[in-house]
Amino acid sequence: MTIVSSTSTLDRLYIVLKKILCLLIISTGILSGCSSTQQPNETVAPTPAWESTYQQGELNGESLYDLLIAELAGHQQQYDVSLEKYLKQAELTGDPGIIRRAARIAQFTKDASSLEKAARIWVKYEPDSQEPQTLLVGLLIQQGKFSKALPFIEGALTTNSHQILALLNSHAAKMPPKEAQAYLSIINKQTQRTPKNSELWLSRGILERRVSDNNNALYSFNKALKLNPKNETVIIQKADLLKDSGKYSQALDVIAAGLKRDPENKQLTILKIQTLYKGNQPKTAVKESNQLISSFRTDNQLHLYLALLALDFNRLDDSKAILQTLYSRTRDTSLHFYLGLIEEQLDNPELAIQHYLQVNRGNNVLQAYTRTLALLAGDTKEPRVTDIITKATANHAELAPDLINVYADWLRSFKFEKQAITSLDKGISTYPDHIPLRYSRAMMRPPEEFPQSEADFRFILNKDPNNAMALNALGYTLSLYTERYQEAYQLLSKAISLKPDDPAVMDSIGWILFKLNRYDEALTYLTKAYKVYPDPEVGSHLIAVLVAQNKNQQAQELFTELSSKFPENPHIMNTEKTLNGQL
C-alpha cells in the first residue's frame, strides 16, 4: 500500500498520528492502573513486518510506522530513537515536512552530526530553499569545516547575511589563508552587488587581513566606517590593523575618536594600552592600565590580563604590583606562577621556586614544577628534586605520570640514567597505558637495550598507529642499531605522510634513504630539513650524502660552517673522520 504525500497530506498524517498517539497514551494510562509491572519508559524500537519501496514525495506503510514510533518515542523523551526514525525517513522520502522535523529534533538535542545530516538532506531535496543552507553554513563554520561550507555560503548570505557575516568574522582567524581567500572572493562579489552594506565591508576587511592584504583591508574598513561611523567592531579592527602595521600614532587617533563617543569602552581602552606598549610608551600604558583597573575594581580577569601585558613588555615591577594586589584580594594560588616568572627574570631563583611551589590550581601546575626543576640544575640538587617530586605526585595524583616524566628527564640530564629508567619503570607499572612514559623510557634506554625500546615503541603504535613521534623514533633507531632498513623505511614513510613539514622526520627519512643508497632522494629531504633546522646531526647526515655523491667541495664547505658553530659536537667530530677518509 502506498500513500501519496504532499505537504498538506503530511499535515493530515500528523493529525492521524496524534490521534493514534492519544489513544495509545490513554490506553497506557488505563493499563498502568491495572498492572504494576508496566515499564512506561521502555525503549520503543519495533520492526515492521513488510518490505517497502520509496519514491520522493511518497509515504508507504513503513514510513507511517516509523513516524508513529518516532512520535511515541518523542513523547517518552527517547529523543535518540525519535531522531533516528525521522532521519531515516527524511533520507528515504525526501519529504520537506519530515526533513524539517528531523532538523528540529537534532537542534533540540544539540546533536551536531545529526543536524548536519538533516541539513544536507534538506539542501539535497530543496536546493532553492535558503533556510537549510543558512543552517548548514552556520553549523559547518562553527565546527571549523570551512571548505565544506563554501558551496552554500552565497545562498546563506542571501537569507541571513547578518548572522553569517558575524560567524565569518568570529572564525576568520582560524581559517587557513587559502580558504579565507575563497571566502573573500565571495564577499567581494557581494560588496559589488550591495556596496552600501557596511557589514560586508567589515567582513571583507577581516578576510583581507587574514590573507595579509593589509592595504585593501584598511580600504575596506574605511568604507565600512564611512557607511557606519559608530560601528565599534570596525573601529577596533582598523585600529588593530594600524597597530600591527607599526602605525601607532594613527592607531591611537582612531582609538581616541572611538573613546570620545564611548569613554567607558573597555575593549577600546585595552587596545589603546596595547598600542602604547607597542609604540614604546610604557609609562603612559601603565598609567592607562591603572586607570582601567580603578574603573573596573572587581574584574579579576581584566587585572590579570593587564598584569600579563605589562610582563610581556618587561615592565616587571608594574606587573608584580598588579599581581600582588590581585592575590591579596583573591588568594588565587595560580597567580604564583606569574610571580615566579617575574622573579626568574629578576634573577631571583629561590624566590621564583617559592612561588612555583605554591601553585596548586589552574593550568600551569605542571609547568610550575617543570620550571622549578630547571632552576635546580646540577647533580648536587638530586635529593631536593626527588623530595619535591615525591610530594608533588602525592598532592597532584592527576598529574603524577607527567611529573614522573619531568623527573626522569631531569635525572637523565644530570647523568642519573639508571635512576631515571627505574623511575619510569615504576611509573609504567602504575600507569601502564600512559604513552608519554613509554616513549620516554624507549628513548632513554642505552643502545644495547634496543629490543626493550622497540617493545615500548610497538606498544605505543599498537595503541596509536598514527603516532608520528613513535613512528619516527622507531624508524630512526632501527636505522642506527639494526640493518632492518626496509622496515625502518616503511615506518618513516608513514611518519612523513603524517608530518610532511617536520624537520626531524625529514632528517630521519633522508637518513634511511641514504642507508638504502637512494642518494638523490636522501639529498632532497636532508637539504630541506637542514634549511628548516640547521642542527649538527642533520648537517652531519647531509655531509654523508654529499660525500657519497662525490660532492666533496660542498661537503667541506658545510663541515666548515658546522664546525665553527658546534666545535665540540660529537656528530661533527665523527663527520670530520668521514671527511678525512674521503677527501
From TrEMBL:
Gene3D superfamilies: Tetratricopeptide repeat domain (1.25.40.10). Pfam families: TPR_16 (PF13432), TPR_19 (PF14559). The keyword 4Fe-4S does not apply. TPR repeats lie at residues 198-231, 503-536. InterPro entries: TPR-like_helical_dom_sf, TPR_rpt, Ycf3/AcsC/BcsC/TPR_MFPF. This is Tetratricopeptide repeat protein. Keywords: Repeat, TPR repeat. The keyword Repeat applies.
